[in-house]
Amino acid sequence: MSYLSSNKLRAALFVLGILGAIFAPPWVPLIVMGLLALRFSAPEVLVIGVFVDFMWLPFGSITVAIPLFTLAAIVLVWSLEPLRSQFLFSAK
């Protein structure tokens, strides 16, 4: 995959994740976050996670809400790093 098409795919997945956070069920941005974290070392995953949490967490309530999408983004980016580096960057 060329560098230009790789960047277009990355940008398209990011836009799909943001639009999925606004208009789609919660599993759509989660799948997009997984795809981005699996293919790229992407800080966009954290941006999508924070965006979803800011949109859907209840502010000003008595109960403390846990930012699940942000935590999922951190886990996805860190846990998929060894897999991504082994399969995408090794020339064996």
- Following the backbone from N to C, one meets helices and strands in this order, namely HHHHH
Mean residue pLDDT: 85
How many beta strands in the DSSP annotation?
Answer: 0
| Overall shape | globular
First and last CA, distance: 18 Å
Low-confidence stretches: none
Helix amount, in percent? over 70%
Structural class label: mainly alpha
What summary fits the major beta sheet?
none
Number of domains: 1
Calculate Rg over CA atoms. 15 Å
Attribute tags:
92 residues, mainly alpha
Q: What does this 3D model show about the protein?
A:
The protein has five helices and no strands. The chain is mostly helical. Helix 1 packs parallel to helix 3, helix 2 runs parallel beside helix 4 and helix 3 (44-56) runs antiparallel to helix 4 (68-79). It has one domain.
Summarize the structure.
With 92 residues, the protein is mainly α.
